[in-house]
Amino acid sequence: MLGGVSAASPKTHRELRSQHFIINYHESISYDYVDKVKDISEEFYRVITQEFRLVRNKLWLWENRTKIFIARDKEDYLNRFNCPSWSTACVNYKDKIIRTYPDQENFSSILVHELTHIIFREYVGLKKLPLWLDEAVTVYMEDKYSKKSKRRDLSPLKKAIKDNSYIKLAELNTITASNLEGKSQSYVNLFYLEAFSIVSFIIKKYGGDSFSQFMYFLRRGYDYEQALSKAIYSIRGWEDLEKQWKRFYQE
Questions:
Q1: How far is the C-alpha of 15 from the C-alpha of 23, rounded, in Å?
Q2: CA-CA distance, 27 to 213, in Å (whole number)?
Q3: Helices marked H in the chain — which ranges?
Q4: Among candidates 234, 240, 250, 219, which has minimal Cα distance to 157?
Q5: How far is CA 66 from the centre of its chain?
């Protein structure tokens, strides 16, 4: 979730630096909590980077580190950062800035989601990603590293495929964030579930290395169909992907 920029007051805020992160936090927040955020951030940075071999040209070192701002509480978060009231974190992807607040139950999931967005966009390129693929990779990572009890239920997707009420891939490729704003909640839910299921299908069927190759070719400037076909020879374009994906979840 994108958010506005707000400078922190040096009188009420402290800073903790690690190898890849600079964490600015309100003085009322315990050091132990912030230190835990630092450890989780560094662990997920390593995991996300290694998961798909997302090696970028510019390392997150010195002043190129990602900045995390932790407000005093939800009210402070909303007042200082101008983030949506429903959000738990908001992110400036280009400048690698995450703004959030403490003591959230699913903070690890929130962090892995937003870090994946930043790292994935930095690797492939900000202008090269359709929304569904950008969201799919982050949801995949969030799902993989969440507790088993919180894994996504794919039964609504399987029913949509059976009823032919799923979002066709030709439509999926055209959906933007502004398009989703006018859609029903059930459509939005299906969008995220379907996006996640496509990436999950590719990885389960063809392996993580093939998906990494797909992203590598996207990074090199190939369009989506070309990149997919070069990475996985048995998928000859979106129509072929759609057929194989549907068959996979109907079995």
A1: 6
A2: 44
A3: 31-51, 74-81, 107-124, 131-144, 155-162, 169-172, 177-181, 185-206, 208-219, 224-231, 238-250
A4: 250
A5: 15
CATH no. for 13-124? 3.40.30.160
What tens digit of pLDDT does each residue of 92-131 get? 988 999 999 998 888 888 899 899 999 988 888 866 678 9
Buried b (16+ CB within 10 A) or exposed e, 192-211: bbbbbbbbbbbbeebeeebb
**3-class DSSP string for 104-149:** CCCHHHHHHHHHHHHHHHHHHCCCCCCHHHHHHHHHHHHHHCCCHH
Token couple for 136: 């799919």
Place of tokens 């374009």: 237
Pairing of strands 66-70, 97-100: parallel
Distance, in Å, from the CA atom of 122 to the CA atom of 94, rounded to the nearest integer, reads 8
Write down the domain spans for the chain.
13-124, 131-250
Residue 41 near residue 69, CB atoms below 8 Å: no
pLDDT tens, position by position, 13-61: 899 999 999 999 999 999 999 999 999 999 999 999 888 888 777 778 7
Pair 100, 55: CB distance under 8 Å: no
CA dist., res. 125 & res. 218, Å (int): 9
Q: Which long-range contacts (CB under 8 A, 24 or more apart) does 232-240 make?
A: 232/202, 232/206, 234/206, 238/169, 238/170, 238/173, 239/169
Amino acid at 222: Y
- Banded pLDDT at 151 (limits 50, 70, 90): confident
Element (H, E) at 69: strand 66-70
Query: What does the alpha-carbon distance between residue 45 and residue 69 come to, in Å, rounded to a whole number?
Result: 17
